[in-house]
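Intended use. Records like the one below are meant for learning the mapping from a protein sequence to its folded structure. Do not use them to infer anything beyond what is encoded.
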Amino acid sequence: MLNKYDDYLIHVQWMTRALELAQAAADAGEIPVGAVIIDSTGNLLAQGENRKERDKDPTAHAEILALRTAAITLQNWHLNECTLYVTLEPCPMCAGGIVQARLGRLIYGVDDTKTGAVRTVINIPDSAASNHRLQIIGGILESACRQQLQAWFATKRHQRK
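Structure written out for the chain above:
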């Protein structure tokens, strides 16, 4: 059994990988969001990065892409024993996908004060509309996640001038 410090180190490890994926998305012109899904034994099942612009797909969020890949890998859409790490609090679409996948645990980096749908603006997982409850932990590598997003948006604003 792991203690809280060991859990935190594992969270940092996987959130660091999600940050790397977010940077790859940023480098490709996408909003920098990265996601990683691990199984109950800590093995990597899936990863994703925002691809809306590249794929011309409004659903190509990092979380949705990772959920799809994890379900294919497991040959099961029930992801009860899985943990999703994502750099930004999921939006309503992604929160809905997380609930529909019956995800066991969600760990995210920074709150999304505009479209956050698991704690900040609305709370889909705990709402009456949700038929599934999951553990949610926010704030893992929060500063790094926030800085990455703020730097990307600052660069975009500067390019528009």
